[in-house]
Amino acid sequence: MKYDKIYYTASAEYLKARTGGFEPELGMILGTGLGGLAAQIEDPVEVLYRDIPNFLVSTAPDHAGKFIFGTLCGKKIMCMSGRFHFYEGYDYQDLVAPVRVMKLMGVKKLIVTNAAGAVNESYRPGDLMMIKDHIKMTGASPLCGPNDEAFGPRFFDMTDAYSKEMRSVARECAKRHEIKVHEGVYFFFTGPQFETPAEVRAARILGGDAVGMSTVTEVLTAAHCGIPVLGFSMISNMGAGILDQPLSGEEVTEIAQKAGPMFAEYLADVIRSL
Q1: Which terminus of the chain, N or C, has less C-beta within 10 A?
Q2: Residue 144 lies in a domain
Q3: What is residue 113's three-state secondary structure?
């Protein structure tokens, strides 16, 4: 049956065969502007998503659409260069695929990154925000439907979905690099349209610090699987209505690419320290 362990085992077995039985310890899902970090992976083995049985295909601009396996900062890495979003036309249940395959490959910890718009008016484009929690008010969940106990329980805890222990490590790394890393709440919207000024105001009132269209489905799946997560948002723009100017995808990509090298250097130290 689709969405059960057997369905995703086909994907995992294919990847194990392509990588010579590689056993990753750390998973990474890289958002816009962090291609430079993926390029640092040593002895890389790349596998296109479209070649993997029972897997998805990334259609978002600037997403490479491949797994990269190798070593980074002394850790055996399984890296997604490009991710999947609800706005691409996938059902929420489809979006469990990446993390469930990572689980079957042996991943023990997960780092997720994204580009996000600032809701908190003290943030500025180019800032980093470590995610301490999220808000999702869209109703459906990737874990709706029949539950496969092989991955996790029907009802699961989200109290420490963004691992306090991993955030503590990342906080110490920020001190070493003498960079300011905000800690805030990520507010999920489905997209692909940017949020309206009224939605940004509502997100702020409800406790959001940044808004974006990804990450949350991955974190929900990881929590279900028992995989601790460290999440980061690169602030690529101010949310709609904060500045008297329209938003564009080009602006998001440009800011993310400018801040990318600094973020990648910092994140490499985090990976080394985990």
Answers
A1: N
A2: yes
A3: strand
Which domain CATH number covers 237? 3.40.50.1580
Overall number of domains in the chain: 1
At residue 31, does pLDDT exceed 90?
Answer: no
Domain membership flag for residue 198: yes
Residue 120 belongs to some domain of the structure: yes
pLDDT digits (tens, 9 = 90+) for 186-218: 999 999 999 999 999 999 999 999 999 999 999
Q: How far is CA 52 from CA 2, 16, 56, 58, 240, in A?
A: 15, 11, 8, 12, 38
- Report the predicted TM-score, pTM, of the whole model to 2 decimal places: 0.93
- Which residues are CB-neighbours of 125 under 8 A, at least 6 positions away? 118, 235, 236, 237, 238, 255, 259
Burial annotation 108-139 (CB, 10 A radius, 16+ → b, else e): ebbbbbbbbbbbbeebebebbbbbbbbbbeee
Q: Is residue 138 part of a domain?
A: yes
Give per-residue pLDDT as tens, 68-108.
999 999 999 999 988 999 999 999 999 999 999 999 999 99
Start-end of H helices in the chain? 5-18, 35-38, 97-105, 164-177, 197-205, 216-225, 249-273
